[in-house]
Design a protein that fits this description.
There is one protein chain. This protein is mainly α. It folds into two domains: 3-68, lambda repressor-like DNA-binding domains (434 Repressor (Amino-terminal Domain), Orthogonal Bundle), CATH 1.10.260.40; 80-181, 434 Repressor (Amino-terminal Domain) (Orthogonal Bundle). Helices cover 68% and strands 0% of the residues. The protein has helices spanning 3-20, 24-31, 35-43, 50-60, 64-68, 80-96, 101-108, 113-120, 128-138, 142-147, 154-165, 168-181. The protein is elongated and about 65 Å long. It starts with a helix and ends in a 5-residue tail after the last helix. Mean pLDDT is 78; it is low at 71-76.
């Protein structure tokens, strides 16, 4: 197992244990593993077999990929705390903009609201492509979703928000205003 993959696993395991209040002793008891084995997993000395890793993910209430993988590409690595904040931001923006989970699911390309429910609860990881789709649905930037950095132009957010809630005429007006702001009007 490459060192980087092992480091990712250990970091993710420790994070989920801490946030869910699960101790090494709990894991030993629930998975019927020795304390030495679980200690080795938590320190990165050893890597669990795939069946044990799945049991561990189930115990922690996460997908296997949440233990084994990065959430985003390396150039935009986020801490787990930042990811949870992003999921809260998604929920808050959906509510602020008066969208149902079904509405948002359609806008970002999901079949139904169940995935939105799971994302807002922090139960699944989303790709950077989906983060871009969420940003587009909310009329904001990926940077705002990922780290709370507001766009430089607040009017931009207001116009895009208005465009979502109003008729197509408002969308055309919004586009004209944006073009004017950028000095690109036809």
């Amino acid at each position: 197992m490459p060192d980087e993959a092992r480091e990712i696993f250990v970091r993710n395991l420790r994070y989920f244990m801490e946030t869910r209040g699960i101790s090494q002793a709990d894991i030993c008891r629930e998975l019927d593993k020795s304390s030495a084995t679980v200690s080795d997993w938590c320190s990165g000395k050893k890597y669990p077999r795939i069946d044990a890793m799945q049991q561990l993910a189930d115990l922690l209430g996460v997908r296997l990929s949440a233990l084994t993988g990065e959430l985003f590409d390396r150039s935009r690595r986020m801490s787990h705390e930042d990811v949870e904040t992003m999921y809260e931001r998604i929920r808050d923006l959906r509510i602020q903009q008066g969208m149902s989970q079904d509405d948002l699911a359609k806008l970002v390309g999901y079949k139904g609201r169940s995935m939105i429910t799971r994302i807002e609860a922090g139960e699944v990881n989303i790709s950077e492509t989906k983060i871009k789709a969420f940003a587009g649905a909310f009329g904001t930037t990926t940077e705002y979703l990922m780290n709370g950095t507001k766009p430089k132009n607040k009017l931009f957010d207001e116009i895009l928000c208005m465009a979502y809630h109003e008729a197509p005429e408002a969308i055309q007006l919004a586009v004209r205003k944006l073009l004017e702001l950028e000095g690109l009007e036809e």
